[in-house]
Specification:
The structure is a single chain. The chain has one domain: Nucleoid-associated protein YbaB-like domain (Ybab, Chain: A, 2-Layer Sandwich), CATH 3.30.1310.10. It is built from 2 helices and 3 strands; from the N terminus they run αβββα. It is rod-shaped, with a radius of gyration of 24 Å.
């Protein structure tokens, strides 16, 4: 006696595999394009009531740090350092969050190792 698969199962093995491979390739191309677009974007954040502004790229590189002259106090360099760190870290978080959101939109929340 032969076992039979329910209708709709089996029979399309090779064509189903090719379709999955095409979908995976399309997904990979979309992710590569989105990654390139995100790397070209800039993210700016500020701290200390806009006393320090930091701009980073989507490649997670610091592009600029702007400091208002009135916050430069030779007696309190530590405060200025803290403001710079806060602004840079917030800008980097914005870039990372944007990348995560964009990739989740493409993948539908699917976590595929090696894609991002």
């Amino acid at each position: 006696m032969k076992a039979r698969l329910p209708q709709g199962y089996g029979g399309g093995g090779a064509s189903n595999l090719q379709q999955i491979a095409r979908q995976a390739q399309k997904l990979q191309e979309q992710m590569a394009q989105t990654t390139q677009e995100l790397e070209e974007k800039e993210y700016t954040a500020s701290s200390g009531g806009d006393a320090v502004r930091a701009t980073v790229t989507g490649k997670m590189e610091v592009k600029s740090v702007e400091i208002k002259p009135e916050v430069v106090d030779p007696e309190d360099v530590e405060m200025l350092s803290d403001l710079i760190l806060a602004a840079v870290n917030e800008a980097l978080r914005s870039a990372a969050n944007d990348k995560t959101e964009q990739m989740e939109k493409i993948s539908g929340g699917l976590n595929v190792p090696g894609f991002f």
